[in-house]
Amino acid sequence: MTRIGMGLVGAGFVGPHHVDAVRRLGFVDIVAVAGSTEESGRRKAEALGARRGYGSYEGLLDDPEVQVVHIATPNYLHYQVTSAALARRKHVVSDKPLATTAAESGKLVEEANRAGVVAAVTFNYRGNPLVQQMRHAILRGDIGAPHFLTGYYLQDWLIKDTDYSWRLDPDKGGASSALGDIGSHWCDLAQYVSGLRITHVLGDITTVIKKRYKPRGSREAFDATNGHEGADLVDISVDDLASVLVRFDSGAKGTFSVAQVCAGHKNDLTLEICGRAASLSWRQEHQNELWRGLRDKANEVLVKDPSLIDPEVRRYARLPGGHQEAWADAFFNVIRDVYASILARSTGSAVSSPAFATFEDGHRACCIVEAILNSAARGGVWTEVLC
Ligand SMILES: NC(=O)c1ccc[n+]([C@@H]2O[C@H](COP(=O)([O-])OP(=O)(O)OC[C@H]3O[C@@H](n4cnc5c(N)ncnc54)[C@H](O)[C@@H]3O)[C@@H](O)[C@H]2O)c1
Description:
Elements (H helix, E strand, L loop, with lengths): L3 E6 L5 H11 L2 E7 L3 H11 L3 E3 L2 H5 L6 E4 L6 H10 L3 E4 L7 H14 L3 E3 L7 H12 L7 E7 L15 H4 L4 H17 L3 E9 L4 E5 L15 E5 L5 E8 L4 E7 L8 E7 L4 E5 L5 E5 L6 E4 L23 H20 L10 E2 H19 L5 E2 L3
Parallel strand pairs: 1-2, 1-4, 2-3, 4-5, 5-6, 7-12
Antiparallel strand pairs: 6-17, 7-13, 8-11, 8-18, 9-10, 11-12, 13-14, 14-15, 15-16
The protein binds nicotinamide-adenine-dinucleotide.
């Protein structure tokens, strides 16, 4: 079988999950890892079993064995690394958000089209088997036309003033923090599952923790180390809480909230879609269950089991009933579809309905976040999503 070489830029929290996912495919070589210094590149390459480590992304991009570039750096580097990879006509798997501004993500769409490569964004919740089931049921018309979409994405890992991430620094994370980081996931999922597009938003944005202790050294995501020692008290300007009213292109309405300061919510993404025949609800922290709400019968819970979900989406269930699918399995499913598309491209064929988000989808998420920021900046007025 054809072997494909991949390289990873940025191996902090999520980067190693990209490597785990491609390793499960069996036909991908982990060629290289690039870190922010020679030393970290070498150390991380060794830890992840990559052949080579680089101290800069340029070195990795120039490696002829790297055909697919995975980007898992802080957000501000996504545009420049992606653009440089596309200039070398490498396939790209960018972690979200695609860029820190819609202007940049729009340019990346054009650059990817010119390069003629597979260009994906890891909105990984799409790969969950019950998300696929929910989408399939809705597109088939099981709940009727959706008229209301609601939910939230709440976390608590930034709840203390001693918690800090580059996400809170606009120069590294972009103009928004929670909205760009996890709101982008919710918006992508709501659109993907419903088949609708968000056209207008009205945002209310808050910075709950206005001063934080920023460590003088670097700290990777979800690092629980905290304290005042070796840290400076800094002002925070970006959102850690936001609520949004949403309108969809079909006339459906919606509402969602995001926050990284809600105690007890670890990675709590919930999406509920209501039609007149039924409602469907999926919650990431209970991802092996899909709730169906009914008016004239008892509500139901579908517990994930490949034999009970539709044959068309069964390939997203990796394990038999009673064996819990998890975050990494959904991530893998998306990466599998990306690499199937890369293989198909080399033979001039195509993969039917791959689950991954394209650069157009990634750009759309950036446009929505930017529209929410614009809405909030003008005091909370309805704002059109332009893209
Ligand atoms: N898909 C998801 O669910 C998901 C989950 C977490 C993070 N993310 C995204 O992945 C990206 C990384 O997030 P994270 O949580 O892993 O952050 P992190 O801080 O844990 O890791 C980032 C890594 O990038 C490295 N880095 C910084 N500058 C670099 C450079 N110039 N060259 C190479 N490496 C460099 C850092 O040293 C660090 O190891 C972000 O864009 C984030 O939004 C996505």
